[in-house]
Design brief:
Number of helices: 11
Distance between the termini: 54 Å
Oligomer: single chain
Strand order of the largest sheet: 3-4-5
Largest sheet: 3 strands, antiparallel
Shape: elongated
Order of helices and strands: HHHEHEHHHHHHEEEH
């Protein structure tokens, strides 16, 4: 008998507990392919809620020395003074005199910056040209407007890293592992702290994830496409060295160069073969070693679609 509003059914209706109906509803949402945009939208709302709550309860201005130093370097770049610092270091005076450079500009009380890699301050200065910050200080202000701009840059890099982590995990494993990874990333307190601290860790993580993703793509592509991926990875490695100095550059050599050179795998003359590797993943202090096996794609059309 069809259901008619306001009319009681004459046939017996089996009783189903409330929790079973809720479970069926959740199951339908989970497997329905047409609800994919709905799930993505709900996750975006959750990420926005986490960002707003964490910022409102934990952000009280910039307190990290590295972040404040990067901010004043970006301010000097934004004002057209060049890559100079207002943090005067006495040991640099002797070195600058020994190489024939002026150790201190009397007009601006600045000296050339010799220690901080320039890429992150350049990124901040570019943002300052778009979102003009206010560096004025008043007695009743909780935080500077410029501090909030730097914090916003940290959150943007945090979200870009989240997307890259999902793409990399899906490339290495599958959709379910990638989804679990982004949820762990979203609620990882050290990453949230780094996002509001204003340091360069967010930019370094984005560059590292981007290059790792390029490496895994190169391992699945023919040699022609892999050559282009080598070029991209080399450029990102150089920029990572500009952000993190010699330490990150050395790490880049160990992580990027050999995997990219061996992207073609070992096999016959047609470039067919399998290549295995071991990766280590450290998520919020929990370390898990995983065995990763990849195969070089033999279909150029399929490879082009993957890229």
């Amino acid at each position: 008998m069809p259901f008619i509003a306001g009319k009681k059914s004459e046939e017996p209706v089996p009783y189903r507990p409330f929790f079973e109906r809720v479970q069926d509803w959740i199951f339908k949402i989970d497997i329905a392919p047409e609800l994919g945009p709905f799930r993505v939208g709900m996750f975006c709302l959750l990420a926005l809620l986490v960002i707003l709550l964490y910022t409102g309860t934990q952000f009280h201005g910039l307190h990290d020395a590295e972040a404040m130093d990067a901010g004043q370097l970006a301010r000097n770049l934004w004002r057209g003074r060049g890559y100079v610092t207002q943090t005067l270091r006495p040991f640099e005076f002797r070195y600058l005199n020994s190489v024939g450079l002026t150790p201190l500009d009397p007009a601006t009380n600045t000296q050339p910056e010799l220690w901080t890699p320039p890429m992150y301050p350049w990124v901040l200065s570019a943002v300052f040209h778009v979102l003009t910050p206010n560096f004025e200080i008043s007695g009743n202000m909780r935080t500077l407007a410029a501090d909030r701009v730097v914090m916003m840059v940290g959150w943007i890099l945090y979200l870009v890293g989240l997307v890259l982590l999902y793409l990399l995990a899906r490339e290495m494993f599958d959709h379910r592992v990638a989804t679990m990874s982004v949820f762990m990333y979203l609620f990882c307190n050290p990453l949230l702290e780094a996002a509001i601290a204003g340091g360069s860790w967010g930019l370094m993580s984005v560059l590292f994830l981007l290059t790792a993703y390029a490496v895994f793509k190169a391992e699945k592509c023919p040699e022609a496409v892999a050559g282009e991926m080598r070029t991209v990875s080399a450029g990102v490695r150089a920029r990572a060295g500009a952000v993190g100095g010699a330490e990150l550059g050395g790490l880049a050599d160990a992580v990027w160069i050999e995997p990219i050179q061996n992207a073609g795998g070992s096999g016959d003359g047609d470039g067919n073969g399998d290549q295995g590797g071991t990766g280590a993943a450290d998520v919020c202090g929990g370390t898990a070693e995983v065995q990763v096996s990849t195969a070089v794609a033999t279909d150029p059309d399929q490879c082009a679609a993957d890229v």
